[in-house]
Amino acid sequence: MKTQKAKGRIDKTTSLFILLLLINSSLMISDRRGKETLKLTEIGFSVLSVFQQGLSYVSNYFIETGNSINELKKIKSDYRTLLEKVSEFELLEKNYLEFKRENTELRRQLSLSSSDSRMEKIPAQIIGNDPGTFFNTIVIDKGTKHGIENDMAVVAFYEGFQGLVGRIIEAGYSSSKVIPLYDPKFSAAARLQNLRYEGIVRGSGESRTLAVMNYVNKNARDKIGYGDIIVTSGMSSIYPQGIYIGKVRSVGVREYETSLELEIEPVVDFTRLEYVFILKKGSADEEE
């Protein structure tokens, strides 16, 4: 009887132990599955987070790139605008300096002109050249409305000298043409300033730096020296006497001719000539 009771107790204990073991196993399995489910959820969130961060980075990259391109375009536009303004300022500065130089030169010319008051002088600026069939002319910015007439003498001041430039051959309303002394169609009565031998000065037709003086007395050959001054003689109604023409460069003579031919270097440098003065007719001349 006791044995049966003891056996019954053991069975109960065994059954309880097995039950408890099953419950514990179930709990462990449930806990493990919960953890695995939690890990999968965490992994999913991590992957999604990385994707979102990457998408945000790419999006920000394109936005910043677009902003950078717009800023670069604006910088280029501002740069071009600045370059245009710099060019405008450079042009204004250049024009200002040119006007200043012209004003200074004109004042100097007028000062030299006022020191020689023998004749009234009309200042003019050279505005061009007009090479034609018969004349190689200089164009000036003064015409009949300024009192300019044909056959007026034209001079310029160069290195302290009042030098002969030529004469007016065509007076327009606001501009005129001047035939320069280096043109072969030009002629002026002249003389050696110191020796007083006379002749006719003409353009050589070869260069703006040369002229010739013909019909000089052959007896002056041994007396004429390099650098002797040639001036207008005043033996015409166009050119007053005493205007400097040039300096003797060489003396030539042919056996069958009775006169000398002098090669002359003009006092005026025609390659640098900018301003001239037209001698107004009707004024009294003075002897040089």
Structure description:
With about 290 residues, this protein is an alpha+beta fold. It has a domain at about 120-280: Rod shape-determining protein MreC, domain 1 (Thrombin, subunit H), CATH 2.40.10. Helix content is about 40%, strand content about 30%. It has one helix at about 1-115; strands at about 120-130, 135-140, 155-160, 160-170, 175-180, 185-190, 200-205, 210-215, 230, 245-255, 260-265, 275-280. A hairpin with a 4-residue loop joins β4 (about 160-170) and β5. The longest helix is centred in the first third of the chain and has 114 residues, at about 1-115.
Compute the CA-based radius of gyration. 53 Å
Number of strands: 12
Mean pLDDT: 76
Q: Which range does the strand content fall in?
A: 25-35%
The percentage helix is 25-40%
Instruction: Give the CATH level 1 class of the domain at 122-279.
Output: Mainly Beta
Task: Spell out the helices and strands N to C.
Answer: HEEEEEEEEEEEE
Spatial arrangement of strands, main beta sheet: 1-2-5-4-3-12
C-alpha termini separation: 178 Å
Backbone structural class: alpha+beta
Count of helix runs: 1
CATH architecture of the domain at 122-279: Beta Barrel
